Predict the 3D structure of the following.
Amino acid sequence: MQPDPAPPPGSAQLRADCGRCFGLCCVVPAFAASADFAIDKPAGRPCPNLRPDHRCGIHTQLRERGFPGCTVFDCFGAGQQVAQVTFGGRDWRDAPDTLPAMAEAFTVLRSLHELLWYLAEALTLHPPAGLRVELERARADTAALTAADLARLRTVDVAAHRDRINPLLSRAGDAARSPGGADHRGAPLIGADLRRADLRRANLRGALLIGADLRGVDLGRADVTGADLRGADLRGADLRETLFLHQAQLDAARGDARTGLPATLTRPAHWTALPLTPVRRATPAVTSTRRRRRR
């Protein structure tokens, strides 16, 4: 008789626990000298700021020292899964030959854990019964993959798995947004002034909102799955009911004490506490990208 599968990980398991990891986010990814990183680092090489105890030596000064990119990375708990489950607590510093395989596992598990986070969020949105069954099945299948050994992880086609799950997440978001608002899915809104836009219940999946001005905007029931909020100005915005908003998106943006946040997320330490000048909402100035294409 086969044992019952382990239950999907809870919210705590989908949050990074650096004390149970081996600094994998400081080793596995490559980064290039840019506005996000002060230096070049090839994949698989430990960052020079990584201490022997696997902690960052400049953690409290990352932004000031030119590493804001580090502050917005989220492994969704994949780091401790690789360290404590896949490799059973075996430290790559003690066994350097394990590092390449550990990097492989981390790359796969980070994507799977992110999908698990989105699936868990989708299930909190009270989807229709049929869709809930599909989401729960997808969650169980994904959780089973995260518990696999290294040999099995190497066979996982992450892109194909994501392609199977994304339509379910999109349907969950659409159901939660109903009746839907403006469609800005994948829209290039870099630096756009959206203060007068009606973005309640909007589809912002994959939208490029880098540096966008969203001061005072109500994003209630807007779907921001995969939206790039780097440098976006969220001062005074209402994000309390925003769909699929995760901590890394907030960490990449700007906000203040008046930015409304979901109870499950934390106000980033770098956000200013200065009050926001009241924003007067007016008739929406941004129309649906879908409508613009038809004109």
User: Anything to note?
Assistant: Residues 105 and 150 are 7 Å apart (CA to CA).
